Every structure is written in structure tokens, then in C-alpha cells.
Amino acid sequence: MRVTDRFALRALVFVCMLVMGQTARAEEKITIAAAADLKFALDEIVVMFKNSHPAAQIQTIYGSSGKFSAQIRQGAPYDIYFSADIAYPRALEAEGLGASEVQTYGVGRIVLWSQVRDAGKMTLADLADPSILKIAIANPQHAPYGKRAEEALKAAGVWEKVQAKLVYGENIAQTAQYVQSGNAQVGIIALSLALSPELAKQGSYVLIPGKLHQPLQQGYIITRRAADNPLAREFERFMASKESRAIMMRYGFGLPGEVE
Predict the structure, then answer these.
(1) Distance between CA atoms of residues 152 and 146, nearest Å
(2) Residue 66 zone, left/alpha/beta (φ > 0; ψ -120 to 50; rest)
């Protein structure tokens, strides 16, 4: 073999190894876009997953389900998308932007939560009390929890009485922060946040009757970007494990197969 041929062969082998190495590293990394109500539960699930996948690099970004959906349509680099409203990932699947079927991961609940009042004794009708000046809910335009809050307030017949008091969070986590900071006296937030270690010691809550709003059926999908990423598939399987389900239940989510 001529020197030039040996050089060319070595260069080809080097390039192949480099490409294979980059591919392997890419497949050990996923970026997750998740609804803000999942913050505490999903953080725990990711930690548990990494115990058995120590090489995995997982970046989790929390925010508004509706905004994430729009970003995925615009090419945002998310590998798995968890939405507080299953309608969003179903729409992406219908548009050919998914690499898996949409899976239900839980059913959420909304609660009244407050640091300055005994929310456990409150009803939605109490929000009309003139001494309550500000009420925080998530923005109904793009946050599923905000939409359900609006539905519940209307069903309870208090929407028009409280509408002028409402302050809107970009997502359900920001909504809770408004109450934590004192910018609102009461908030309608996710049960999963009210049960979190941080909020549980700061305030009290009461469940809002589920009959007052549409169910918060929540789902996730592997995006088209991650079609060939085995780590995304591994994480999808782990979400159905008994360990993940136990964490979701602890944070108040109804589980697939166990919710009527």
C-alpha cells in the first residue's frame, strides 16, 4: 500500500471514529421541555433515572405548555415534550412533529392556595370577599392550569366578581410565586406544587372540585428531533415504571389506568 493510500485510510478511520463518538455522545443527551406543574416530580424522576444511567446528560426546562408547543413547531431543540394539556402533543403528532405516540402521564388537579389565609376552609365563592385584593392564576391563553382555573371560576359563578382582581402568571410556577411573594393573597395553582416540600411548609390549600372544570389530562411525546435517540426511548419507558408512578402519585397526579 502506498504512503498516500495509508494516509487516506487512516484519515477515513479517524473521521468515522469521530462521527461515531459524536453520535454516541448525542444519544447520551436529551433536552426535556416540561409543564411547570411537573417541576418537583420530574426532577425526582430524572435523579432516579440517572442512578441507572450515569452517563446520561438530561437538561430539563420548565414553562408554559402552549409556548413549548409553539417553540417545537419553530424548530426548538427539545427531545421530549411534557404538556399539562394532552391536546398540545396530540396536535404535534397529527402534524408529523412527533416520533412516538402520545402517552398520558397523569391527570392534574387545581387548588386554592394561600400563605396568609386558611385556604383549607375556603371555597371559590370566598374569592369575592372585598378584603382579597389580588388573586393569581396562570394565563388561560397558553397555560392549561389557567384555562381550568377560568372554567372553575365561571362554573362557580364568581368569574365576573373576581376578574378585576386577577393577576396572570406565564405558567403555573410563576403563579405560585406571585402568592409566595405577597403580590397576590390567594392563587389557583397545581396540586403538585402545593404538595412540594417548598410550598407545603409555607401555606395551605383546598382542592377545587373536579366537576367545575374539564379534566387536566396530561401527556408527553418524543419529538421528531429525537427519532433516533435511544436515551429518549429509555426515559419514555422509565416514565411507566413503578418508581416513576410512585413519585407522580406522591405529588397528587392521577395515574393512567387508575383514573376514571
Answers:
(1) 10
(2) alpha
pLDDT at 156 over 50: yes
pLDDT tens readout for residues 212-241: 999 999 999 999 999 999 999 999 999 999
- Give the span between the Cα atoms of 23 and 29, in whole angstroms: 10
How far apart CA 207 and CA 240 sit, in angstroms, is 26
d(Cα 22, Cα 140) in Å, to the nearest integer? 42
pLDDT in tens, 139-153: 999 999 999 999 999
What is the C-alpha to C-alpha distance for residues 190 and 35, in angstroms, rounded to an integer? Answer: 11
Give the predicted TM-score (pTM) of the model. 0.84
pLDDT category at 64 given cuts 50, 70, 90 is very high
3-class secondary structure per residue, the chain? CCHHHHHHHHHHHHHHHHHHHHHHHHCCEEEEEEEHHHHHHHHHHHHHHHHHCCCCEEEEEEECHHHHHHHHHCCCCCCEEEECCCHHHHHHHHCCCECCCCEEEEEECEEEEECCCCHHHCCHHHHHCCCCCCEEEECCCCCHHHHHHHHHHHHCCCHHHHHHHEEEECCHHHHHHHHHCCCCCEEEEEHHHHCCHHHHCCCEEEECCHHHCCCEEEEEEEEHHHCCCHHHHHHHHHHCCHHHHHHHHHCCCECCCCCC
User: What is the distance between the alpha carbons of residues 57 and 54, in angstroms, rounded to a whole number?
Assistant: 8
Q: What is the pLDDT of residue 88?
A: 97
